[in-house]
Amino acid sequence: MTQRSLLSTSIKTALFASFTISSGISVSAYAAEETAKVERIEVTGSRIQRQDMETASPVTVIDAAAIKAEGFTSVDELLQAQTSMAGAAVGSSTNNGADGVAQVDLRGMGSQRTLVLLNGRRMVNSGSGADSAVDLNAIPVAMIARVEILKDGASAVYGSDAIAGVVNIITKKDFEGFQFDVQGGMTDKSDGENGEISALYGMNTDSGNYTFGVAYSKREGVIQSDRDWTDPGYSSFIPTGSLGGKVVNDQGEWVKRDSGYDFTQDSYFQTPNERTSVFANMVQEINDDIVFTGDFLYTKRKSSQQMAAQPADIMLNVCGDSNTLPGEPCITLNDAMIAGGIAADDTGRVNYRRRTTDVGPRIYSQDTDTYRLSAGLTGTLDVHTGFNWDASYTYGNNKAKTQVDNSINATNMEASVYANQDAWFSGDPLSQAIIDDISFTEQNTGGNEQHTFSAGLNGELFDLDAGAVAFAIGAEYRYESGYYTPDQVIQDGDSTAAQQDATDGDYNVLSIFQEVSVPFTDKLTGEFALRYDDYSTFGKATTWKVGLTYEATDDLMLRGVAATGFRAPSISELYGGDTGSFDYLTDPLGHEQDPQILVRYTSDDDLEAEESESLTAGLVYSPSAIDGLSLTLDYWSFKVTNAITRLDVQSGINACLVGNDSTACETFGIDPTAGAAKFDNLTSSLTNVGSQDTSGIDFNLAYTFEGLGLDWKISNDTTYLLNFEQDNEDYTGTIDGNFGAYAKVRNNFSIQASQGDWSVMYFNRYIGEMDDHYTDYDDNGNPVAALAKSDAVLYHNISGTYHINNDMTVTAGVKNLTDEEPSRVSNGSDGGTVPEVYDVIGRQYYAGFSMKF
């Protein structure tokens, strides 16, 4: 028997003891000889290095060639095209409220429940400040070698946030030579131009590799009204203003408003974005046993959104009313106003609304800088144990400056109306002096910072008859901080936009993790993981994972994973300042109102962690009778309890006003007796009372073969959603402007034919029909069936690649070949639809060129 060190024996004994307690398996002796060294890799979802990529967990891999062939220029675009995505992750088509951020939403469970890694290590949360998820804009497509999507819960391996799964972005490394790429595209309507230029250089030395890259990309906007299918987005806020719901006509008479302002003329379907990235990877052997690795990424993003001019809504005192106190500023109702039916309400005031088009559209802009530096050492403990060790440090930093041009100071506007009544009530354009007095540029700052120290040990403990028992153990310390400081006018509540307080906070966590892989027999392998996390905020969390793979035959493998998970409350959830949100809500009693109602969002520093249970079970089938064919079929289920959520405000309004539920009225701050002011104190607080329950089936087919003198590749991905419930509300097979889409069926199909230097690919993407998640009410306030269905859509894409020679390649393609229009959604978020779900841009052409030397 080989002599082993005391350290080796102690570690193995401790690990083995913890394993046998849970499994009941005992082994009499260690293997007599060390096995030969073989190349092992770390697969997403496990820290154990192994030879086989196929584990108990389902993983989708998208390589750089597929990304280029399909014309993706952003990470979020390629991820949201996957069938495993749902909901409405913000991205290039989110014009309202996203601040240019792009995120991923696996299973539609929320971007905060999908963990994003870069080369297996955490990426700093990023955006406009105190963010709860990663901004995928920070990662340029040019640096990606492949993307791995782990589609089961992985908190036992990676800790918080991996409830729905993990997206691991692997960058290009070990590159030698120089590569130059350029790609550009535009719509068939000559707008929405986009392009990317990148360069990659790598060199090998006797003991390492150094790879450097730079990328620049730019995307132009698309205005909503430039698409003829767009529903006009009428709002009761009009440029000439309204007093008490009346407007001035050409004869100077005050009449009832019979039309609104179409805000789609000033709003984007595709938002402008400009990014510059610099990145580097290095691998350097220090000696035969130690290797240093490092990677660096810096991205500057400049993005913008545009919305209709600011809607201003103020209440004015009426002169002569008994409720107006002596000395208070007031307006005088003239004979025409009185004849038109304008009168003070029971508080002695009258409502004045105006779309401030004289000032100009609201132009949101962001200037963000995101840095990430990661460095690590890996090595062999000693020649006798064969154990491998690693230690790493990762630093992430994100800083943002955001601003909103043509904002309105409500305090100044109110004073101006009192002082210049004729100018405001005439219906004529405002003077430049008034415009300068009431307008300002909103300026905000924010940021995020992350420090992560990690160390681990992995290797093989001992041999069983079926093979070696492998393990990985380690510890990690992580510090997170974030802040967001709104403009002082916003903090003071003087703006017509919602008042918002500042956010500032931090936390730290110490973690210990362990994994063991056990080959019970030649066919049955078990994977076991356990993790302990200690947070400075809510306290402790322990999670586990059990996975099994069974090779039933040479062609068929069965697999399954059961796991627990958690998500720690984020900086903004714990320490976020109170903020307002204009949500798309409906009065179930049918009273006339603007579709967006102000809701006060509040945070809570006593929030607990979310908890989850997940299960995946399926098979991998590669029939030997059909060479090149492989199939996977997986059932998946996720249940989240103690979820941090804001209760559905629309359901609360319905319960209060239709169901006469006094508890709902109190919870959401609704006063049914207050008439038009019943929603003035509408509040939505973060609490740990939420839940999610979702399940479905994933099917994948991949087939490569030769026929008709060509090489063929066929791929088909299907996700069938069995159930999605959140906070006891069923969203299965529905779509909504607030929550996005939960289609029962999503399918991606591609077929590629190639020969020699050329290849052609056809790709389609199917989203099944859905019911509008919107309830209408009859005259008695009783709910009736959904207003409409959103039709199924099938998008067709084609692309071709030609290798001019070994060093030069050209690619060209068309997205949405048949120019499919998005389905109408009665409660859509923009333009009569949900832009995060459907293609609102239309047919697009793209082409690219790559040169290596």
UniProtKB/TrEMBL annotation:
Pfam families from the UniProt entry: Plug, TonB_dep_Rec_b-barrel
Residue stretches making up the TonB-dependent receptor plug domain: 53-166
Sequence ranges assigned to domain TonB-dependent receptor-like beta-barrel in this UniProt record: 354-817
Entry membrane topology: Multi-pass membrane protein
Assigned keywords, A-Z: Cell outer membrane, Membrane, Receptor, Signal, TonB box, Transmembrane, Transmembrane beta strand, Transport
Cellular location(s): Cell outer membrane
Signal peptide stretch: 1-31
Family of this protein: Belongs to the TonB-dependent receptor family.
Protein name: TonB-dependent receptor
